[in-house]
Design goal:
This protein has about 90 residues and is mainly α. It has 1 helix and 2 strands, in the order H-E-E. It is rod-shaped and about 80 Å long.
């Protein structure tokens, strides 16, 4: 049984469309992953900079919570020194 050229073209076109969709989805996922990694790398640096202003303060722990649409602002940084909270 031979496949007609029209049927073969349709199958190939469908395969190409499927691969294109997968490539787009993979690209979107890669972009999200890179953005998350960049964000997680920049937060400790920003916190260390803020902690350096206060003598005796050290970065002890960093925790991340997803909050879409929100960015870290320097006013969000809270430094605990000798059980007192300093903004």
């Amino acid at each position: 049984m031979t496949i007609s050229p029209g049927t073969q073209f349709k199958r190939n076109a469908l395969s190409v469309a499927g691969w294109c969709c997968l490539a787009v989805l993979l690209g979107i996922q890669l972009q999200r992953m890179i953005a998350t990694k960049v964000y997680k790398a920049s937060v400790p640096r920003m916190l260390n900079t803020a902690a350096a202003i206060h003598q005796g303060a050290n970065l002890a722990d960093v925790r991340f919570q997803r909050d879409s649409g929100r960015t870290l602002d320097p006013s969000d940084i809270v430094i605990c020194k000798n059980t007192r909270w300093i903004h």
